[in-house]
Amino acid sequence: MLLLTLGTAAGGGVPQWNCACPGCSGARAHPDRRRRHDSLAVFGEDRSSWFLVNSGPDITEQLETHAALRPGTGSERTPVVRILLTDAELDHTLGLLRLREAHHLEIYATAPVRQALRERLALDTVLTPYTAVTWHDLPPAGQTPAVAAGIEVSAVPLSTKRPRYAADAAEDDAWVVAARLHDPASGATALYAPALAAWTEGFAKEAAGADCVFVDGTFWDEEEPRRLAISARTSTGMGHLPIDGPGGTAGRLSQLPARCLYTHFNNTNPLVDPIAPQHGVLAGLGLEVAQDGMVIEL
Ligand code: MLT
Ligand code: MN
Ligand code: ZN
Asked: What pLDDT digit, counting tens, does each position of 169-183 carry?
């Protein structure tokens, strides 16, 4: 299995259009610091078929950036696009609308995520006049896996955090999940968790057995959203465990045998500046900061 990071930013991207914080201004001055919304392309063993994990508002530019994701020569068009969703948040789903030129979209998601997209965002109503849409269940890890590009895909339930547009919907711990990707050919397993509200037992168990783990790097520390006045809530209160500090993910990730990479960076995170000292802290723990366009072979 081959993983290609199409983007590594949280909602808004880096820079965010209406923001002039140091992270956003830095990315305007240094285009190599720009980050698109977090998304992953996953290639199967034969490298000819692929699927996406999350489809944010940048998705068609992200597909266009990488030759392996472009259509074949001549009049061929990409016939089917398969997309796995880790949640129903706008930064992970707005790109579904941008894929309407496909002949067919196959969307893998848990029940609450499917329901939110179909009933609250009316995606079926909007997309069906343009493209065929098939919805697939993303089953819990351990159950009969769904298969895309020869990879077994499943969900590790993480939290009941609902998108703001579905705040009154019923609680369900599959609102936010980690995507578990297992390649039966190589035996490798990857976890993709761009929103991690709590270090659950289920996540700890799957992470301990994985070869590669992508984790929520939205905020560096618990107080960052309040200190920078972007929210009245803490990082954990916003559904994102911070990287640093006593309840942070860095200490736990450093204990894992897996290759661990942070993704889903908010523009307030000091890590969006490549010379920030926080990079040294993570390097000392053996942890990586994902960049757009990374290729990982497992
Ligand atoms: C999040 O990651 O917390 C959400 O995507 C927030 C948002 O973009 O509204
Ligand atoms: Mn997000
Ligand atoms: Zn900013």
From this structure: 999 999 999 999 999
